[in-house]
Amino acid sequence: MNPDAFRYDGKRALVVGGATGMGAATAELVQGLGGDVVVMDFADITLPGVTAINLDLRDKASIDAAVDECGGPVHALFSCAGAADGTPGIEKINFIGHRHLIDRMLEKSFLPEGAAIGMISSTAGLAWERNLDLVKEYLDSPDFDAAAAWIEQHPDKADYMWSKQAICGYVARQAFEFLKRGIRINAIMPGPTDTPLARANADLWLTFGSDFRDETGTKASTPGEQAAPLAFLCSDAAAYVNGITMITDLGYVSSGVTGSYPPASPAVDFLLGKF
Fold this sequence. Notes:
Elements: E1 12-16, H1 21-32, E2 36-41, E3 51-54, H2 60-70, E4 76-79, H3 90-107, E5 116-120, H4 132-139, H5 144-153, H6 160-179, E6 184-190, H7 196-200, H8 202-205, H9 210-216, H10 223-233, E7 245-248, H11 252-258, H12 265-271
Parallel strand pairs: 1-2, 1-4, 2-3, 4-5, 5-6, 6-7
Helix pairs in contact: 1-10, 2-3, 3-5, 3-6, 4-6, 11-12
C-alpha cells in the first residue's frame, strides 16, 4: 500500500466539535496530514489555519446555516461534538444534530463519491445490539424534529448512553445505503479519555477502569490517541472498512468479556446490557 493513503493531501475535512478534546486533536492531526480543515463548534475555535464556523447542534436552523457556509466538497466528515449527562439538549448535541448535518450535506451533494464519515461513540454505547429493536425505532424517525419528538415520548433516553447506542446503530445501518453513494461511515468507541469534558466529570469518567490501568501500567487515553484511529478510518488507507464501531479502550472491554481481567467483567456486562 502507498503510505500516502493515510494522508489528506488535496482533501477537505470538516470536524464538527473541533474546538476542544478529541475533535480538536482530530482537526490538528488531519491538518498536519495535509488536509484543508473546516471546524464547526459552539465553543471558540482557536486552531490556526482552519476555517471556523459557529454551530449549535441543538438548533436546526444553526446547522442548516453552518452547512451552507461550509459548502462542498467535504471529503472527510468527523462528527466529534458531544456533551455529558445533565446538559440541556444532550440528545441533539450527541446524535440528532449530527444526523441532521449529515443529511443536509447529502441533500446538497457536499459529500462526493469517495467521501468518508467518522463519528465518536463510546464504550457506553456497547448495548446497542441488545437494544436493537428500540434503536431502530428511534432511527426510523425521519428527521430532526421527529427524533426530538421521539425523545420527548421517551424522556429516559435523553442521556449519554442512549445517544451513543444511537450512533453505533446509525453507523451499522447506514453503511449499506451510504456505500451505494460511494460514501463510507465508521465510528470509534473510546474508553476513558482525558478531555475537558471528561475532566468536568472526572469522578465518573476518569476513574472508570483505573484499576485496569494500574495493573497494566497505563494511563487514560489522550485526545490524540483517539484522533489517530478516527483519522485512519476516514483515510483512503481504510478504503475497505465500513459500518464498524472500533473499540479504542486499550483492551478493557475485551478483557472483561473474556474474563482475562475478572474485575472488568461486571462493568463490561453492564455496558453490554446483560443486566
